[in-house]
Automatic annotation (TrEMBL):
Belongs to the IL-6 superfamily. Residues 1-15 form the signal peptide. GO terms for biological process: cell surface receptor signaling pathway. The keyword Signal applies. It holds the Pfam family PRF. The keyword Signal applies. It is found in: Secreted. This is Cardiotrophin-2. PANTHER family: CARDIOTROPHIN-2, PTHR21353.
Length: 197
């Protein structure tokens, strides 16, 4: 009878929570690595677009995309976020960024086919953003948080967009990729301190 009882009990390992320390550490390392490459990506992108993008000191903070959440947020607002909100924001942003980086890569294949370095950097950025998405999903699972469903963040893309409009779109995407990576490093540093290995 005792043997029968042990067969009916669920195995202990199945419901045991996974420590979030390891996925947090992996995500933090990847985000730091990404951070080292974001300014290079933006500079390469701007240099390949011609004037006014390649002009010294070019910056257009007023340019935004409605399909891409801006990373900028006041310190007070950011600090008040809980783990779930912080991770959900980052998850949504990097999901949007992977889709937007694919679009920018396609645009640049058409606009700058002779720039293999830029195309390779855009492809690498997209793969890293996907990797960070996977890491964040692992963190959310370990913390028992629901993972937001994947969405089509691009919506309807104007395929008749002019070359200048596509260059502007790519500028916003590569700039926001850098800003979101910086924010992810800060988010993950907080989590790392909260859940030491």
């Amino acid at each position: 009878p005792l043997c029968l009882l042990t067969l009916l009990l669920p195995p202990l390992g199945l419901g045991a929570p996974i420590s979030p320390a390891e996925p947090i550490s992996q995500a933090y390392s990847l985000a730091l690595y990404m951070q080292k490459n974001t300014s290079t990506l933006l500079q390469t992108y701007l240099q390949c677009q011609g004037s006014p993008f390649s002009d010294p000191g070019f910056s257009a903070p007023e340019l935004q995309l409605s399909s891409l959440p801006p990373a900028a947020v006041s310190f007070k607002t950011w600090h008040a976020l809980n783990d779930r909100e912080r991770l959900s924001c980052a998850q949504g942003a990097f999901l949007a960024l992977t889709q937007h980086l694919q679009l920018v890569g396609d645009d640049q294949s058409d606009l700058n086919p002779g720039s293999p370095i830029l195309l390779a950097q855009l492809g690498a950025a997209r793969l890293r953003a996907q990797g960070l998405l996977g890491n964040m999903a692992a963190i959310m699972t370990a913390l028992g948080l629901p993972i937001p469903p994947e969405e089509d963040t691009l919506g309807l893309v104007p395929f008749g967009a002019s070359a200048f409009e596509r260059k502007c779109r790519g500028y916003v995407v590569t700039r926001e990729y850098g800003h979101w990576t910086d924010r992810a490093v800060r988010d993950l540093a907080l989590l790392k301190a909260k859940y030491p290995g």
